[in-house]
Amino acid sequence: MKRLLDLMCLCLLCLTGKTLCDENGPVVITVEEGRDVMLPCSLSTKEDIKSELFDWRSDDQTDVFLYDNGLHYNNGRPGQSEQFKGRVSHFPDELRHGNASIIIRNTKVADSGVYTCDFPLREKIEMFHIKLVVVAPEPDINIIDATDDGVLLQCEVQGAAPKPRVEWQDRDGNKLPAKDPQVSERGDRYHITLQTTVTKTGCCRCVVTQEETNRRTHAEIYVAIIVKMSMWNKILGVTGILTAVLGVAAAAFLLC
């Protein structure tokens, strides 16, 4: 009988609770590193929560943001994780509408994870789960110059943290020779520029690796090297022209 009663209570708990998620898991929000992101959390009743308590935590139970009847981490309440200090805020004017959403500013890849917004003191369970994915910014690739010696490519990585390793690779993943990188530091973020000269037709990619967070991103570019015909090739006439055309046609099938 007690077992049956426990099961009935459990079922009642499940029916009266609310979780913001879909059938496949929490709602997923993706943001580029360095940008601000809002994590939504609002009561279905839209009732005033200025005198209530709500708690935001990450999946490892890290204290992200806690609000308790007007007292919170941004006005003197202790306990917030160092990871989020000075970067998380709520919407004071929206509390009267049941809105407990927060903003995480200057997002970092390390902020990625599942966040839970909980109202632990309410009789009716209100719990919201949000999966945050912070992706490292993709590098920018530009063609700087094209000469008889080849094509000069430049890769720029802006606002990366922690400091990444940047390198040029060919389509097979082989590292290409490059000039010494230009690195500037702005606060805790890095701006890196890396140049390489390409002498062969094909795909090249700039690969950015952040070993501390096990993250990697890249951008690709296809470079077509056009070689000027020598006088001897011109004398060869039609045969030389046909050979060049066939060579270009074959290269077109080998795009990235």
Automatic annotation (TrEMBL):
Places the protein is found: Membrane
Signal sequence interval, chain numbering: 1-21
Cellular component GO terms, alphabetical: external side of plasma membrane
All copies of domain Ig-like, residue ranges: 31-117, 139-222
GO molecular function, one term: signaling receptor binding
Keywords annotated in UniProt: Immunoglobulin domain, Membrane, Signal, Transmembrane, Transmembrane helix
GO biological process: regulation of cytokine production; T cell receptor signaling pathway
Domain of life, source organism: Eukaryota
Positions of transmembrane segments: 235-255
SMART domains referenced in this protein's UniProt entry, alphabetically: IG (SM00409), IGv (SM00406)
PANTHER family linked to this entry: BUTYROPHILIN, ICOS LIGAND
Designated name of the protein: Butyrophilin-like protein 2
Species assigned in the record: Sander lucioperca
